[in-house]
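Q&A log
Question type: sequence-to-structure
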Amino acid sequence: MGKLTVRDLIQAKGKRKLVLTTAFDAWTARAAEEAGVDMILAWGSTLEHSKWVVNAVRSGAPNTLIGSGLPITGAYSSEAEALRLAGELRSAGTDIIYCSGLVPEKFAALARQKYPCAGHVGYLPVQDTWFGGPRAVGKMWDEAVQVYQNTMALQKAGVIAVEMECVPARVAAEITKRVDILVFSMGSGPDCDGQFLFSSDLLGTNMGHYPRHSITYTRLLESATQAFTQYRQDVERGTYPAKKHIIQINDDQFEQFLAAIQT
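Response status: OK
Response body:
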């Protein structure tokens, strides 16, 4: 299949639900692409790490849109630095510049240079302390208005999409109807333009808390543990390696080998 473009993504609004997940290695990215996922989010702890991760994900998913976040330590300092970092990420294979908490003015600078950008509204983990810890955002009318205003500010700045995290479903649905940009739901109900879930939640590899909005289709961590346990037991019992796993040598060649190493 041909690579999905940003234009394709934008034109999907109101026509079909978009599907987003994460990947940090080639095999997860390959599985996501073969399953028909529209967009993969991939990032690292530093710029160089992010570039390495994006490169790995691109090798597994050559035809899928990849979003990657700007490093917090640099992107917030100036428009010039945000542009420089975005350029490096794009050169590494990123299609959409994504950053949680980046102010609209920085996104405006990126949008003027035609960088496709995605913002983040509702609950922002990067600003966790201001929320008093993880929680829904927008259950009170004034907070719901703030989510709407934040979304509108990002739209005005030129982003193509926002991730809307942990916002009441009716609020999210109403905002989605009122904006031209795409709204990706992370725990914000079924009526946004698409759904975004972490691959670790979907695949059962999350070693921490599974959020309420997550769904788990398989338990790869449990399956991997079972496989390693079986491997260890087979080695200890001597059932691995079996005859089919062993490379053989003809008797005459073995005899010549023994003769050659006699001292």
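Response note: The beta strands are 18-22, 39-41, 65-69, 96-98, 117-122, 161-165, 182-186, 194-196.
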